[in-house]
Amino acid sequence: MQTPSIRLRALVLPLALALVFLLLLAQQVQAGSTAIPTETYRVVSGDTLWDLADDRTEAGEDVRSVVRLIQRLNDLDGGYITPGQVIVLPAA
Asked: What pLDDT score does 29 carry?
């Protein structure tokens, strides 16, 4: 027969792990909830993702981080955009 301390440990460990998981999940959700001002844009011939990002890059900011942001906002796997495509960009 199990002693009360073994049963208690068997109950406390999964509860502690679940609590840690929920705290990490809440932190992740909170970090992702920061609203970024955006605007929609219809891609025209000659546009590149890099050029659009460069137009929205602050002085001293890395263009690559803005490219990644645009990719994330639009669920883009690469840097390919097509004329007529409507995409979301960080507000200029």
From this structure: 58
Task: Mark whether 15 and 48 lie in a shared domain.
Answer: no
Give DSSP secondary structure letters for 2-63. --HHHHHHHHHHHHHHHHHHHHHHHHHHHHHT----EEEEE--TT--HHHHHHHTPPTT--H
Residue 4: predicted pLDDT: 67
Query: What does the block give as tokens for 34?
Result: 């920061």
The mean pLDDT values, 10 residues at a time, for the chain of 92 residues are: 70 77 70 80 97 94 95 92 96 84
Same domain, 48 and 5: no
CA-atom Rg of the chain in angstroms: 23
